Amino acid sequence: MYKIVEAAFLAQDIKKFVIEAPKIAVKRKAGQFVIVRIDERGERIPLTIADSDTGKGTITIIVQGVGKTTKQLNSLESGDAILDVVGPLGMASHIGNFGTTVSIGGGVGTAIAYPTAVALKEAGNYVITINGARSRDLVILEDEMKACSDEAYITTDDGSYGFHGFVTQKLQELIDEGKKLDFVLAIGPIPMMKAVAEVTRPYGIKTVVSLNPIMIDGTGMCGGCRVTVDNETKFACVDGPEFDAHLVDFKNLMDRNRMYQEYEKKALEKFEHECNITKQAIELEKSN
Amino acid sequence: MAEMLSPKERMKIQRQPMPEQPPLERCHNFEEVNYGFTKELAITEAQRCLQCKTPTCIDGCPVNIKIDEFIQLIVDEDFLGAAKKIKEDNALPAICGRVCPQEEQCEAKCIVGKKNEPVAIGRLERFVADIEMAEGVPPAPVTAAKKGKKVAIVGSGPAGLSCAGDLIYMGYDVTVFEALHELGGVLVYGIPEFRLPKEIVRKEIANLEKLGVKFERDAVIGRTTTIDELMQEDGFEAVFVGVGAGLPWFMNIPGENLVGVYSANEWLTRVNLMKAYKFPEFDSPVLDCRGKNVAVIGGGNTAMDAVRTALRLGAENAYIVYRRSEKEMPARIEEVHHAKDEGVQFMILTNPIEMIGDDDGRLTGMKCIKMELGEPDDSGRRRPVAIEGSEFVLDVDIAVVAIGNGSNPLIQQTTPEIDVNRRGNIVVDGNSMRTTKRGVFAGGDIVTGGATVILAMGAGRNAAKAIDEYLTENSDWPEIH
Asked: What are B415-428's pLDDT values in tens digits?
């Protein structure tokens, strides 16, 4: 069992957890992930490690409640425990002194872009960050991103905060201003990563994306996480999760990630139904 | 006690059939297919053994179980004694009795088999092991003095478990590291419940725990901890690497990443380990097979497990698609028979060349080509050759690729001193199981490539002997080539 020592919502449906996992905390490098299984009946899902504290022996993960498992995870509080946390898995981000780098996080993807932005800063790069969200109340890690950036931008789709528009528009603006960008790392929803790849492609800017396919073991055994990169099959868990954005087959990734859509819907409905029953039972008990 | 029979009388007895769940019933459930021998059946079958002076069956057994002796104990109705006798050489008989390819091993060498069908050694092994388990006989206590030396075992599959079992009896302090959340390796994620009930694996592991073997789950050696850290920081004086093959091969044909194409590992792991057949009671799903066409590509035991799983999940048509003929199939004969009885359709001499999908990237069909057998290849089997112009499309919704496994790269990535060959298998010195890194031994599928449970167990036992020798007598580490 892995104890949760801190749990707090950063935005609606986005929750930060600090979990006791000393071995993983010591080992993890930016870009790596853990596989989490909440309980005996749970599925195994990959979650990127956002941060770690080797002194306290903890890792931080940031979770967006979308499906059954992530919503169940987000119902946990400090003091609760997670049955299985395995890692650190995947290859660490390829960090070097590239020159001027742009780290782009879309939505909860910012939680993954953040540790690599920190690592890029430590490696001596001029770090630009673009932190995108749908609206102001969904912006996460604003201070953290600012702290590791030479230039930090926030974009919101509805213009309620920062730059009004998509992260790609901000990126295009930087390029149009004549900034010489040497390296772009984009993490977020698949359409966003695909759009970033298309912005940088004509300029030949080295661009990397972190992929989040469906996984089971996370050690190369099942092959469920295979992605098509440069027309070759790669396993995201052992060859990735980061790949050259200009070579990734995003359509294939999107199709594969939708594989269990109807099952996920069913599982979520069942979970929410059970939650409601529990809530009603608690209220009934209170009123009695 | 059963009466003594003359060899002539023994030869007259027919091989006793295994009682089993009726095919049309069992293809709808995940319960074990074979019920196992009754006492009467076991004694009758045991009487077929000629008790040869030089039993050739023993040579056919990778761990040289004293087959003649344990069979005689069955005739004498000393079933627990028979189980004990097997355990002198094989720590996990309830498992081996179920999954060993006996027809290629002990039973292939049986003298009775020259004229009649061979003695059902595997079924007898299973029978006594099950009786011992049902009676709850505790494992023999460890009598060896504690050696005060720590040995790490990487992987809790058949190789690791048998190595741990032997080392604990020698007095070592043994810890087994497992990457998954459940112990047993391929015995729990790969082999389905209907062929090897998980309860049996759990009991065997519980016995090892009682003896003092320590188990760490969720521990990915090569990631969570490296072999160097185990040896330098955690005080392990020797390490046995028995991680299995564990990197599924695909065919590298167009469309292989379409939705609906699985590796056998993923397919079986979802169903066996993650219990997807109980979705949504359990969270992990597997694509609904009801009314669907499922093709499994390959002819080994894993392919048979995968296709019979598809039937149990409700597949309308479940196909085995295999590029050679049935004779070349590596699967146990019993599994092939069971699959056929259950309604699996065999498409032999057929090779998939393309997976076809719709606009949503979902598999709709598999383009195949017919094959014929040519000259023998490196494996000694006749090479399949494509028949020009024989292409056709098989309508399938789900395809499972069961053509074997490459070797997992995680350990090699962080321990480059451990040499691997060009296929990624760890290189060991044949007899001593030593790798190119001092103190590190390896065995099982990570060394041989995909093989059998019993070969892995044999390797685990050899490694235990070699580790004992290294830690007590001779710590030389000659150069390994």
From this structure: 999 999 988 899 99
- In order, the DSSP letters of A85-119 are EEEEESPPP-----SEEEEEEEGGGHHHHHHHHHH
Render pLDDT for B128-187 as a digit per residue (tens, 0 to 9).
999 999 998 888 888 888 999 999 999 999 999 999 988 998 999 999 999 999 999 999
Dist. CA B190–CA B172, nearest whole Å: 30
A222 vs B269: CB contact, 8 Å cut-off?
Answer: yes
Owning domain of residue B14: 7-134
The angle that helices B453-472 and B158-169 make with each other, rounded to 10 degrees, is 40
Q: A2-89 sits in which CATH class?
A: mainly beta
Whether B423 maps to a domain, the answer reads yes
Whether the CB-CB separation of B241 and B440 falls below 8 Å is answered with: yes
| Interface ipTM | 0.91
Element (H, E) at B168: helix B158-169
Dist. CA A207–CA B27, nearest whole Å? 50
Residue with tokens 């990563």: A193
Instruction: State the amino acid at position B119 in one-letter form.
Output: V
The answer as to whether B217 is a domain residue is yes
Residue A42: its chain B contacts at CB < 8 A? 283
Provide the CATH number for the domain formed by A100-257 in this structure: 3.40.50.80
**Phi, psi dihedrals of residue B366, rounded to the nearest 5°:** -130, 120
H-run or E-run covering B441 = strand B440-442
- Residues linked to residue B238 through DSSP beta bridges, in sequence order: B151
| Same domain, yes or no: B102 and B180 | no
In chain A, where the domains are located: 2-89, 100-257, 261-288
Sheet holding A58-64, edge to edge: A81-82, A2-11, A14-20, A58-64, A45-53, A33-37, A84-89
Residues B290 and B323 in one domain: yes
For residue B275, the chain A residues in CB contact (below 8 A) are 41
CB contact under 8 A, B285 and A260: yes
Both B259 and B376 in a single domain?
yes
Question: Are the Cβ atoms of B410 and A37 closer than 8 angstroms?
Answer: no
- What are B319's two structure tokens? 């196909």
Query: For B19, left (φ over 0), alpha (ψ -120 to 50), or beta?
Result: beta
HEC string of A257-273?
Answer: HCCCHHHHHHHHHHHHH
Binding-site residues on chain B for chain A (CB distance < 8 A):
179-181, 189, 217-218, 220, 223-225, 246-248, 250, 252, 256-260, 262-263, 265-266, 269-270, 273-275, 279-285, 287, 360-362, 408-410
Residue A88 preceded by cis peptide, ω within 30: yes
Residue-level pLDDT, tens digit, chain A, 288 residues: 999 999 999 988 999 999 999 999 999 998 999 999 999 999 999 999 999 999 999 999 999 999 999 999 999 999 999 999 999 999 999 899 999 999 999 989 999 899 999 999 999 999 999 999 999 999 999 999 999 999 999 999 999 998 999 999 999 999 999 989 999 999 999 999 999 999 999 999 999 999 999 999 999 999 999 999 999 999 999 998 999 999 999 999 999 999 999 998 998 898 888 888 888 888 888 776
Kindly determine whether residue A223 and residue B285, on different chains, have CB atoms separated by under 8 Å. Answer: no
> CA–CA separation, A183 vs B235, rounded Å?
43
Residues on chain B touching A84 (C-beta within 8 angstroms) = 181, 217-218
